[in-house]
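Objective 1b. Sequence-to-structure analysis of Glucose dehydrogenase.
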Amino acid sequence: MCHPLPRIVLSLAALLITAAVPLQAQQADTPPPSQETLPTADLLEGDAAEEEGGSAEQMAAPAPEPLMQMGSDWPYYGGDAQATRFSTLDQITPENVARLEPAFTYHTGDLPTGEAEGMYSPEVTPLKLGDDLLMCSAMNILISVDAATGEENWRFNPGVPNEAIPYGATCRGVTIYTDPEAAPDDLCATRVVQGTLDAKLVAVDAQTGAPCEAFGENGTVDLWQDLGERVPGWYAVTAPPTLARGILVTGAQVLDGQAEDAPSGVIRGYDAVTGELAWAWDLAAPEQNRHGPPEGETYTRGTPNMWTMGVADEELGYVYMPLGNSAVDYYGSNRSEAENEYATSLVAIDVTTGEEVWHFQTVRNDVWDYDLGSQPTLLDWQGRPAILLPSKQGDIYLLDRETGEPLTPVEELTGLPQGKIEPDYISDSQPVSAWHTLRKAPLTEKDMWGFTPIDQLWCRIQFRRAIYEGFYTPPSAERPWIQYPGYNGGSDWGSVAVDVERGVIVANYNDVPNYNQLIPRADADEVGLKPIDQVEQRAGAPEGAGDPQSGSPYAINVNAGWRNDVTGMPCTRPPYGGIRAIDLETGETLWDRPLGTARRNGPFGIPSMLPFDIGTPNNGGSVVTASGLVFIAAATDNLFRAIDIETGETLWSAELPAGGQANPITYEVDGQQYVMVTAMGHHFMESGVGDEVMAWALPAD
């Protein structure tokens, strides 16, 4: 998994210059001229090319359950079952959005204490069902509030301890399941399910918050089973389970960079009523461990995990799981063939059997931590069922939902550098989307920036000191190397929104490099870099900042966002993040603009209060409405915005008490449309700490 960049303090000179940047359409940059592009013919792997009609298991699968419908509700993390983040509501329009006023603010009461100080990154997106908002807090307190007033209905605290926090205390959301066999008034006929930081699935009644006693043991399923030694913080669930055909499918975050002998990245499906294990997909031992490993053994250690949100196709009975990298991100020569085959891939799994259907790999032999962090989106594209897949590198792919075959052009970068560390492992070619990419042109020395000529010179010296050979520059130990895009480039957990009526993709993105250096094992041992199972106390730090990578010859140190050590200034010129509208039919850019002002940023961490749109790092996605509005927070200026989807113009904004690094929602109660975002801050984005759930609506008249 990767984590968001810290808030990047911005150059005053950069602010003045970029204030004049027009918000006009900009076409996506093409790959560097030195990197030849050739058609990719063989990216798809797996058994997707089987005969039409599917397997016997698929033919015998139960009929899909009816889906909860979008409109007045927001019943899924991605809005609808397809994860489009598109709402049919249109009461709030570009003409009246400036009249929005606060409807209510609810406080969860979940704020960091003790060792959790400086480690909160909630990222929560509530669901709305009927009259209720259903959500989790950073530490997995389940909460229901009235969707019109914000009055609390109930809460359930599963008692997650601070020691369970991995990099950050995060719960992105919950999953709702209605049992078709239950009477409407039965306890847990409709239930709320979450995965927790201490690796449990917890199910409670949606009406009362009472535990679903028939689910697992008194409403709880232990996900540590068959993983090996329990090490708090090493294995944690931060995303809502994916639901299909009565099966809850979950992966987990495995704390990156600790050791090759890490907990397994196994993906498991559980019966949504009983909590019983339905199947397990262990990519290195899929048949042997289908129903759990043999007695005394564990799921395969150190395999790529699935920490983000999946999506399900009820009709096909498939769940689509975006995989991350192996347990050691920046060294690959020790990896198994199975790890090399599946790391950084989208995998389609038959939810009725737990068998792989197909997988599509976006990075070969990934040593850059380019996990697939975005939830995919299901849509119909030119008459075919498709799945849209964004990546951290900025590439956006459209694949056939049934087979995984690319529906839009995919090309091949060839002649890539191999470096000196493991030239026999680094792939000399990589796939890229020729349909659309958010990726910009390679860096040059003139892109180095600073508050004064002195610190700009410092950054230029650092640029010359480092190894940089463009996109996919391999890791280095003798000198630092520049990774661009960084591990938080392109799209991350906020994913994209798709206006299915206008045929427009809305994608916000980061555009910042990392400044990395491998640390030889002897040097890592000398400074005491140890994995999580060998340390007594941990402190939150950006991923890769002194990660031991035990079992490999190198530890890793990453300067995330590449900041000047003295001023805290970024070493590259702004903008550092933006938002773009893309034509779904053609892949062409409609408009592209910086996202985020300089109001909270400045040299030495001093806010400039300047309102210029310079483009800050941003994490968390958007929601699009039928009236043509894009609602988004995400940026480190802590503003919640409404943007015109036709022009990219900001039509309304509201100041948040802490960062909104979460996906907003919109819903309706008694004919009134609301927009909502959680303003809880984010420690890595340095956007404050809060516990607010905030809603806006038009005046009653």
